[in-house]
């Protein structure tokens, strides 16, 4: 038995890697407004699973991006969708009043008509995935209603969904997902919590992985605070079959973040990420900026997800760093600004070396 085969037996992920269809058990995290075709193509060129975040795309834009990605890269693609309930716009007068001093300073106002919001997976997007037939479809904030989930599953795609607790993992497994993404407290961006509960109760990833592995009969993908080979190796040794990495890829030149966000990711401020509800109304981890410093990271006046974003639109245009989110997980300082292909290859080689592999590839 060769070293790679022994490694496959040791971490129990060889079969799942074959199902993923990628060279490495690494998934690029879908990151709205930060990830896109270029970042996905680079990660795929390095052997990872590519991802397109779809919650802020129109069906036409998704088709265009998917076709461009297929033309630029080979390998499995994950299309990611949100599953929140998008009700009517709430009364946000208290939120606008809280923002009024900023409106006056920048000589702007909240938009009279709400700009496009993060949209949940719906029948129109189901029709798109039926046409595109990606290898993987993933969901955040639970799962869509059964008729929509059945349509997604009928495409033949592998179905993934995020869990922030053991209870959520059990629920997802009972509803037939092909793998659970265990999202730890450390993860940047929106926490995928969908069964309620306090954010303070969310586990760190190293505690969450083995507890989910022990109670579900599907593979587990680890997400949150993984930014180097040590994190990958630790997650796999705890029973994960793969890892999903986001913040490390934000540093890559192919990511779509603005320059102040890049600078913040490499600064001492990246050590002080916190959960905030200011930017969307949903809890998400990011680097503190002016809005968070002035108002505090959590405000009851912020409308529920995703409506808080509407009133901020013109302030974000005027000062993206001060009034837009600087999403980041807790391991940003472990990363460097290298191309996505090189980053993926480095992560895989480092993890294999730590786990006793040859560096020639993972078992399939």
UniProtKB/TrEMBL annotation:
Catalytic reaction equation(s): 3 propionate 3-nitronate + 3 O2 + H2O = 3 3-oxopropanoate + 2 nitrate + nitrite + H2O2 + 3 H(+)
- SUPFAM superfamilies for this protein: Inosine monophosphate dehydrogenase (IMPDH)
Q: Per its record, what are the GO molecular function terms?
A: nitronate monooxygenase activity
Which InterPro entries does this UniProt record tie to the protein?
Answer: Aldolase_TIM, NMO
Required cofactor(s): FMN
Q: Which Pfam families match?
A: NMO (PF03060)
Q: Which GO terms describe its biological process?
A: response to toxic substance
Keyword terms: Detoxification, Flavoprotein, FMN, Monooxygenase, Oxidoreductase
Entry's family note = Belongs to the nitronate monooxygenase family. NMO class I subfamily.
Put simply, this protein is called Propionate 3-nitronate monooxygenase
Organism listed in the record: Edaphosphingomonas laterariae
- Species classification: Bacteria, Pseudomonadati, Pseudomonadota, Alphaproteobacteria, Sphingomonadales
């Amino acid at each position: 038995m060769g070293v790679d085969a022994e490694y496959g037996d040791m971490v129990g992920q060889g079969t799942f890697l074959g199902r993923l269809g990628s060279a490495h058990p690494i998934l690029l995290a879908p990151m709205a407004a930060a990830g896109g075709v270029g970042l996905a193509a680079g990660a795929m060129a390095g052997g990872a699973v590519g991802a397109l975040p779809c919650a802020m795309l129109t069906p036409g834009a998704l088709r265009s991006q998917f076709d461009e990605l297929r033309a630029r890269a080979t390998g499995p693609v994950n299309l990611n969708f949100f599953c929140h309930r998008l009700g009517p716009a709430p009364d946000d007068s208290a939120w606008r009043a809280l923002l009024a001093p900023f409106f006056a300073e920048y000589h702007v106002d909240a938009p009279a008509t709400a700009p496009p919001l993060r949209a949940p997976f719906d029948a129109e997007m189901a029709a798109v995935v039926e046409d595109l037939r990606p290898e993987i479809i993933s969901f955040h904030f639970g799962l869509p209603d059964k008729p929509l989930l059945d349509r997604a599953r009928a495409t033949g795609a592998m179905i993934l969904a995020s869990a922030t607790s053991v209870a959520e993992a059990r629920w997802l497994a009972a509803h037939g997902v092909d793998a659970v993404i265990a999202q730890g407290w450390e993860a940047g961006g929106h926490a995928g919590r969908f069964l309620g509960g306090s954010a303070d109760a969310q586990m760190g990833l190293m505690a969450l992985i083995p507890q989910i592995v022990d109670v579900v009969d599907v593979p587990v993908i680890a997400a949150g605070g993984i930014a180097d080979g040590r994190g990958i190796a630790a997650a796999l040794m705890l029973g994960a079959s793969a890892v999903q990495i986001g913040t490390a890829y934000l540093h890559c030149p192919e990511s779509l973040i603005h320059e102040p966000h890049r600078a913040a990711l490499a600064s001492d401020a990246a050590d002080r990420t916190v959960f905030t509800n200011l930017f969307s109304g949903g809890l998400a981890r990011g680097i503190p900026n002016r809005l968070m410093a002035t108002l505090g990271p959590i405000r009851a006046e912020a409308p529920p997800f995703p409506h808080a974003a509407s009133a901020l639109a013109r302030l974000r245009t005027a000062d993206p760093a001060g009034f837009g989110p600087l999403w980041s997980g807790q391991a940003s300082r472990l990363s460097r600004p290298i191309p996505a292909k090189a980053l993926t290859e480095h992560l895989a080689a480092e993890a294999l070396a730590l786990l006793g592999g040859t560096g020639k590839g993972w078992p399939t």
